[in-house]
Amino acid sequence: MRILVTGTAGFIGSTLALKLIERGDEVIGIDNLNNYYDVNLKLARLERIKTSSLFTDLRADLEDREAITEIFSKYQPQRVVNLAAQAGVRYSLENPRAYIDTNIVGFLNILEGCRHHQVEHLVFASSSSVYGANTLMPFSVHHNVDHPLSLYAASKKSNELMAHTYSHLYRIPVTGLRFFTVYGPWGRPDMALFLFTKNILENKPIDVFNYGQHRRDFTYIDDIVEGVIRTLDKVAQPNPGWSSDKPDAATSKAPYQLYNIGNNQPVELMRYIEVLEEQLGKKAQRNLLPLQPGDVPDTYADVEDLVTDVAYKPDTSIETGIQRFVEWYRDYYA
User: What is the pTM of this model?
Assistant: First the structure.
């Protein structure tokens, strides 16, 4: 297939592009190489895939309507995976407009491209952040998610609403994926595992928010990508049993579907740090801090629908995942 992937210099996007190319798909990749974090890391990710004749590397901002329109018109993708976004809960408190520009205006341009070019299936990245103030565990795609706690989360919830509208009006098959705390080799430098590793190796203290008392459903990068590919291959269908009297938040009479992709095994942050210390052979100096504004205490993914519909359940342990990350980190920054 010819698949348009946005965010191909990103953590998830570069790994996904590599896997799609390995199985013989043609990937049209879009990235703007912004400086939210180290551009050299983004370029190094692209180097893994740029040598393939099946990869086309394009520079564009999602919010550039003319550029996105031209890309859809020229390349006519059969399917689209939208991963490009302004990421980060804490950064959304400092620079909210970036989230509106990329995550909402940019996503509208992707939807319009799908609408006007008969795209077979759009898969887009949502986030576990949409669960916001919810405390009923595990988080289910069938739960109400109307109380986000950050603008980042609100932008991802907006994506889900916008996608459903286009699916309803124009019968575009759409699948939204709520990712849970992705980690692993080639990860983002602003995320905890990366920050912790860097500081421990440099004998600097690590900031441990919520005094280390929260839990995260840490999900390994390869598990995330496998979930994306499996759901991409299963084109979203209308739910014939959907009722407007008792509306199911995860499905619709339109060809629209939501899934959680998480490890389904929440881990206490202190345990996560202990495993990292074991792999590094060094103890961390812990700077215990209160919960950050916009953060949630715990995340825990219910993946029953993912198992039922695409026969897949992420299962990489943090012991294995952190070991692979540390090996990559030592090699990359040798």
Answer: 0.96
